Amino acid sequence: MSKSSLPPIDPTKTASGIALDPQTLERVIPESRRSDGSVRKQLKIRPGFTPQEDVRRFRGTKQTQADANALPKGHIIGWIPPSSKEADSSKPLSKSAKKNAKRREKKVSDKKADEPVKDNWEDDDETIAAAPQKNEEPTKNNGAQSTDTAESLSSKMEKLDVR
């Protein structure tokens, strides 16, 4: 016999405990063991009989259609789940990627340290004299800079992820 033609070891049961006997193909309540250790014998169910537990609640065609079209529980209209960046972040970073991450962190910390602090927070009209700008060398690869900003943006979005 092939594996697919064998009956299931534990046949599926209805709410009332009725299962299909794999040998006779009749509906039966299978034998079970009581708490004292004795065994209840298998009971045959008459053809056409449906116990009250298995009777389904009547649903009209419009009700069933509305249920089929209903959104899953907790679904928000227009919300798209974020892409799975978590799987990518679990991979270890290469040596150059680690260096680039350190450079980015240092650059951000340097920018924060260079910002002048207002003396008077209540006067928004005052403008602070701009600190002299450092002459930085123009970056040769603008594409790498745009990917850095995209990565920082995606990391910020992951932090804002609502669960």
From TrEMBL:
SUPFAM superfamilies: Pym (Within the bgcn gene intron protein, WIBG), N-terminal domain
Compositionally biased region (Basic and acidic residues): 28-39, 107-120
GO-annotated cellular components: cytoplasm; exon-exon junction complex
GO biological process terms on file: exon-exon junction complex disassembly
Domain WIBG Mago-binding: 25-51
Pfam families: Mago-bind (PF09282)
InterPro entries: PYM1 (IPR039333), WIBG_mago-bd (IPR015362), WIBG_N_sf (IPR036348)
Record PANTHER family: PARTNER OF Y14 AND MAGO, PYM PROTEIN
Name the UniProt record assigns to this protein: WIBG Mago-binding domain-containing protein
